[in-house]
Design brief:
Blueprint: H1 23-53, H2 58-81, H3 84-102
């Protein structure tokens, strides 16, 4: 019998369930679960945006993911060598539009609300 086909003979669980009564372990697992879920949600949303919003084929969208996987380590290496001042400027460049987006729905006197962006459906 091959090793991967062997079955366990005892009925003991692989992980003792009493470990989950420890608050630190449960809290740590929950803390690791949250960023994982956010990351998963981002990539699913990005894949849908590439295919439905930008009308890419699934193969082209997959190629974009491959480019992301190849470019991320290089970008991380460059980011570690950039001076802290440039990082602060970059955060300011990102923070400005974010605050503008968060204040976009706030009514102002005499302000004309912007039209909603409507993209044509993919054909």
């Amino acid at each position: 019998m091959k090793r991967h086909q062997q079955r366990r003979k005892d009925s003991a669980p692989l992980v003792a369930l009493s470990l989950f009564r420890v608050g630190q372990l449960s809290g740590g697992l929950a803390a690791q679960l949250m960023p994982g879920l956010v990351c998963c949600l981002f990539f699913v949303t990005w894949a849908l945006h590439l295919q439905r919003g930008l009308c890419m084929s699934p193969l082209t969208a997959a190629a974009a993911f491959v480019l992301l996987a190849l470019g991320e380590p290089a970008g991380a290496r460059v980011a570690m060598t950039v001076p802290v001042v440039l990082i602060g400027v970059g955060l300011g460049v990102v923070g400005g539009p974010l605050s503008g987006m968060s204040l976009a729905k706030v009514p102002a006197r005499g302000r004309v609300p912007p039209r909603a962006c409507s993209t044509p459906p993919c054909t």
